[in-house]
Write a structure and sequence with these properties.
alpha/beta, TIM Barrel, 3 domains, 3-stranded antiparallel sheet, elongated
């Protein structure tokens, strides 16, 4: 059985709150989707806005290996002519050879939203498809609200599909537009449509009930040969069916080779690439492609995968371009410590060494530290446990001043400004550096002062940038006296790493995490 993939990230996905793709973004994503092996890429709505107009102009020149660009539009307006409809004309002139047009498939939608007759809606569907066909386009018909319409008025929903098929539609796309249909309500209508029409059938599911992927797979098993969705499930409201879950499920679970093995191995890369362009953090817990999708924290689990990788993983992570991760926490056993250390290039196979490090981890986690997402700080624990380890620098002490000043630039106005200044003492070898620096906040001032001290001995430390800073209150019930945990993400422009600090004093917690970040980078870059 062949199943085609249809991606609508550039249109439906862009309707997610907070997403706005530029024309260049859309071109970059198109190339990535082509690498993934997607058959059809819906580029947007020609003529609806200048960005989409420009995209379809550029799309004419794109050299794609497998994907074909699809233009999107809607049926003509009620009581109008298709050959005079600006939307259809723009679609016909966009340069695409495939058009997807959406039409109402629910009798209630026709009368309540379109405010026209059921007969006129059938004519709108047929006229629009015939017009695009006359211009040489292949037409996919998006039967909007099909499943809701099928429940309310089965006869009319099928009449709409009949009108589309008779007019020359090359695919009937059954849409669960409101996303409220259950899998058992998908199978019977899809089977009926597949049996009734010789035209290929597609599924387009939304995720308002959290069932878009399940509904899509159910439709395929019922005979649908095209699956529509978006990367990471982006879309309006709760999103669309997530192709990053659908594709591996089709290939690895159902046995449908919708993409090659090499293309499937790009899945995680494509998922994170689109997240970055959308300016959204990748979901770490997303199936298949999430950073934590193959993470293991419990001691029994780690012991199991050390002996047999399939013991607690439903697939080999490499098949989708991901990798397993072993986490270290107070829940860990010695197996976690040994496995994680081995990943980092350390041999802790000696029972005594692993037990000692495990006890240290558990003790520090009782003080508020957490290492399952601060692997750089954990690696430093291993280094510091070596009897011959000499730290590259030692923190002696620090002081931070936060001052609110009143500025008087003129007699008519007055401004207030915050000033943060940090003074630090750092020992490098036998020398103590005493530096001071200002910042836009106490943590920024500390960071600047620490770097100012270290850069005189380690100039390359200037490459390190703090890219994320998170604070977690650990005991909310005791208010401002609570223990806090600070997690810092740093980058040198090529790699990222995470460090942790904990204290009842937020400045000290930040100081410890900052120091770990710089010491880790210096060690990794062979400064030691």
């Amino acid at each position: 059985m062949e199943v085609q993939l249809y991606d609508t990230t550039l249109r439906d996905g862009a309707q997610r709150e907070g997403i706005s793709f530029s024309m260049v973004d859309k071109v970059h994503i198109t190339h990535k989707l082509d690498e993934l092996g997607v058959h059809f890429i819906e580029g947007g709505w020609p003529g609806s806005n200048p960005k989409d107009v420009e995209f379809f102009e550029v799309a004419r020149t794109l050299k794609l290996q497998r994907s074909r660009i699809v233009g999107f539009g809607s049926t003509r307006r009620p009581r109008a002519r298709a050959d005079k409809d600006a939307n259809l004309i723009a679609l016909a002139n966009s340069g695409v050879r495939i058009a997807a047009i959406v039409g109402k498939n629910s009798s209630l939608q026709v009368t309540q939203v379109l405010e026209t007759t059921l007969e006129e809606n059938l004519r709108m569907i047929a006229d629009s498809i015939r017009f695009l066909k006359s211009k040489g386009l292949t037409v996919f018909f998006d039967a909007e609200h099909f499943f809701d319409g099928y429940k309310a008025n089965k006869v009319y929903a099928l009449k709409c599909l009949e009108a589309a098929a008779n007019a020359g539609a090359s695919c009937l796309v059954l849409c669960d537009t409101n996303g409220g249909t259950l899998p058992e309500e998908i199978a019977e209508p899809v089977k009926k449509v597949v049996k009734a029409f010789k035209v290929p059938v597609a599924i387009h599911a939304h995720n308002d009930s959290g069932l878009a992927v399940a509904n899509s797979l159910t439709a395929v098993k019922a005979g649908a040969t095209q699956v529509q969705g978006t990367i990471n499930g982006y879309g309006e409201r709760c999103g669309n069916a997530n192709l990053c879950a659908i594709v591996p499920n089709l290939k690895l679970k159902i046995g449908i080779d919708c993409v090659t093995d090499a293309q499937l191995a790009k899945l995680t890369e494509v998922s994170h690439y689109v997240s970055e362009i959308a300016n959204l953090a990748p979901d770490p817990f997303a199936p298949y492609v999430g950073y934590s999708a193959f993470s293991h924290k419990g001691g029994f689990h780690v012991s199991g995968i050390a002996k047999w990788e399939g013991s607690y993983q439903h697939i080999d992570p490499a098949q989708v371009g991901n990798k397993p991760r072993v986490l270290v926490s107070e829940l860990s056993g010695k197996g976690n410590i040994i496995y994680k250390a081995k990943e980092l290039g350390f041999d802790l196979s000696k029972e005594k060494d692993a037990q000692k490090l495990l006890e240290q981890v558990k003790h520090r986690e009782s003080l508020g530290f957490q290492y399952d997402h601060a692997e750089a700080s954990f690696e430093l624990l291993i280094h510091r446990a070596k009897p011959d380890y000499q730290p590259l620098f030692k923190l002696v002490d620090f002081m931070v001043i936060v001052e609110k000043r009143r500025r008087l630039p003129s007699r008519k106005s007055a401004e207030e400004e915050m000033l943060s200044e940090a003074m630090v003492k750092v020992m490098v070898g036998d020398e103590i550096m005493h530096t001071a620096a200002e910042g836009n906040g106490p943590v920024n001032a500390l960071d600047n002062a620490l770097r100012k001290a270290l850069v005189q001995f380690y100039p390359s430390v200037a490459q390190v940038k703090l890219v994320d800073y998170k604070v977690r209150i650990l005991e909310e019930s005791i208010g401002t006296e609570s223990q806090v945990r600070v997690l810092i993400e740093s980058s040198d422009g090529t790699e990222e790493w995470h460090t942790v600090g904990s204290s009842t004093n937020i400045i000290e917690a930040s100081w410890l995490a900052l120091a770990d970040s710089l010491e880790y980078w210096l060690i990794k870059n062979k400064t030691v």
